Amino acid sequence: MEKMYFDHAATSPVHPEVIEVVYEAMKNHYGNASSIHNFGRDSRRIVDNARIVFAESIGAKPSEIIITSGGTESDNTAIIETALNRQQDGKHIITSVVEHHAVLKPMEYLEKLGFEVTYLPVNEKGQVDPIMVEEALRPDTILVSIMYANNEVGTVMDIAEIGNLIEASESTAYFHTDAVQAYGTEEIDVKRDHIDLLSISGHKINGPKGIGFLYVKETIFLPSFMLGGEQEKKRRAGTENIPAIAGLQKAVEIIQPQREQRKERHLELRKQLIEELTQKEIEFEVNGNEDKQLNHIVSVWFKNVSAEQLLMSLDLSGIAVSSGSACTAGNIDPSHVLIAMYGENNPIVAETIRISFGLGITSKQISYLAEQLATISLRLKK
After folding, report:
1. Which of 34, 90, 105, 180 has the greatest CB tally within 10 Å of its CB?
2. CA–CA distance, 327 with 323 (Å, rounded to integer)
3. 249-307 pLDDT, tens per residue?
4. Is pLDDT above 60 for 328?
5. pLDDT at 109 over 70
6. What is the reported pLDDT for 130?
7. Is 92 helix (H, G, I), strand (E, B) or coil?
């Protein structure tokens, strides 16, 4: 039985060329980048070159890139360190109810320290209204954190409009966006969209796990979230992970030139899946915002079919999908994103699965997926 992976939004397979680069770095570039001898300078060149590539991919300066262990560390650093460092200016923060837990958990932590967090609602398409962000701004607002695109339903937020509204206001709030799911797919320009802080993770774009970066606008000072050495210009302690950094650089170099081509390919696969499902005798609806959507994420409500049972049955057929964020795996609680969009008692919440595309997905696999979805959902519904 051939196994098929349709859960690229959770994590993606590492690109073969990235694997080669990581292996070569592990074998030949083992010096500590903080050492002044030749072996250290060799590793330092890898870090410096990667920083340039990362910066160019989002329209930033190399000096504005802090290399981290991934999206969670980047989000935690941006949110917690901003709050602690700016609390003399105010203790009010704005976010949305559909953020990733790497954003929501730090918010909960800060509330325990006395900060006030405004959680903005979303509409049935999963969209945050930029005007609500503007209206929520106060003189004591120090941070706004709105994700670039949702990881469960794929809705792309109006980041440019939100950034422009914050910039045009009298607020001194920093604007942070978790761009983990959008990076490599959407055109990101931090200067154009007035983004002050932005989080990225490597394993979503066929790079290694445990590597990412945080963009911090050059006028902003954030103390190191990790306490220890003086790496990353005293902004992130810890010996640099040279193989992972080299691997992420390669992943970015592969994915950036192919961004539009990749989006078009994912749109073709998306349309094929929806068309083939439409031809089956099943009741389903696609969640999210078709007008502003990550093409590689398809959130589907199969009516009167348990998502949990559907997911397990697909797994027995060798097909991997998910029922929400992988970061809540093993948790029986329903999706906070779907609850925010449709309400806690709406059947959509317990009857939705997430299908996500990426490297290696073929049209033939999409057809097999559609066939299995139809067969299994009809059986479960009966």
Report:
1. 180
2. 11
3. 999 999 999 999 999 999 999 999 999 999 998 999 999 999 999 999 999 999 999 99
4. no
5. yes
6. 98
7. strand
**Residue percentage of the chain with pLDDT more than 90:** 93
Which residue in this structure is represented by tokens 């097909």? 319
Active-site residue, selected from the candidate residues 19, 226, 327, 378 = 327
Query: Catalytic: 327?
Result: yes
CB atoms within 10 A of CB 169: 13
Which residues does residue 96 pair with via DSSP β-bridges, in sequence order? Answer: 120
Question: Would you call 236 helix, strand, or coil by DSSP?
Answer: coil
43-78 pLDDT, tens digit each: 999 999 999 999 999 999 999 999 999 999 999 999
Q: What are the tokens at 284? A: 């389903």
302 closest CA partner among 335, 330, 278, 270: 278
- Find residue 299's DSSP bridge partners: 287, 354
- How many CB atoms lie under 10 A from the CB of residue 33? 21
What pLDDT does 324 receive?
A: 65
Strand order in the sheet with 352-356: 284-287, 297-302, 352-356
Task: Compute CA 310 distance to the chain's CA centroid, rounded to the nearest angstrom.
Answer: 25
* Number of C-beta neighbours around residue 111 at 10 A: 13
For the chain, percent helix, then strand, then coil, each to nearest 5?
45, 15, 40
Report which of 209, 328, 29 is spatially closest to residue 336, judged by C-alpha positions.
328
Residue (of 337, 332, 360) closest to 16 by Cα position: 360
Note whether 300 and 290 are within 8 A (CB): no
Could you tell me the two tokens for 276?
């083939």
Q: How far apart, in whole angstroms, are the C-alpha atoms of residue 105 and residue 176? A: 15
pLDDT at 323: 84
